[in-house]
Design a protein that fits this description.
There is one protein chain. By secondary structure, the protein is mainly α. The protein has three helices and no strands. 75% of the residues lie in helices and 0% in strands. The model has no long low-confidence stretch (mean pLDDT 90).
Length: 79
């Protein structure tokens, strides 16, 4: 199963995101979501094998908050 879904959480998030973006749940959308949820992680698996470890969780949270703040401020400036 590990070879079919190298990153199960990523697969689940991709399928859910596709179904939410589609706006409706039909057989065709569910089939396409399943195809994307299996194929995209298989294609990106070689790039995600050597992810660096997070050394400082505080620094990572500060970076996430900084990026989120920049995104919100940019959206406000455009609106």
């Amino acid at each position: 199963m590990k070879h079919l879904l190298p990153f199960p959480l990523l697969s689940a998030l991709l399928a859910a995101s596709w179904l939410l973006l589609a706006g409706q749940i039909s057989f065709a959308h569910a089939l396409l979501a399943a195809f994307l949820a299996v194929s995209i992680p298989l294609l990106v698996a070689p790039f995600l094998d050597h992810l660096p470890r997070v050394i400082s969780h505080v620094a990572a949270m500060r970076l996430i908050l900084l990026v989120t703040r920049d995104i919100v401020l940019a959206n406000i400036a455009v609106a």
